[in-house]
Amino acid sequence: FGIYIHKFEKYPGDITYLEDSCDRVGMDYDRCVKSIGTLGGGNHFIEVGKSEETGEYWVTIHCGSRNYGKTVADYHQKKAVQKVREPKM
After folding, report:
1. Are 66 and 28 in contact (CB under 8 A)?
2. Which pTM was predicted?
3. In this model, does residue 86 exceed pLDDT 90?
4. What is the dihedral of CA 9, 14, 18, 24, to 10 degrees?
5. How far apart are CA 42 and CA 45, in angstroms?
């Protein structure tokens, strides 16, 4: 994995649905695709630990949905607010 974004596209498969979604919500498709497989920045982290009592290992990770998820959520939130403000019949 990496942090932030990759310098090249990491996912060679067919992700046309992602391009359509990015177009719909106004997100930069190239940046979105280059973010796939990364951990992110800010408060995103991965931590590996070992129990002193049992010797077992554990992994904790927080990465959310990165900027793609926020952009999609903002888009739908804006649509919902517009709908609520429409005149009632």
Report:
1. no
2. 0.46
3. no
4. 120
5. 8
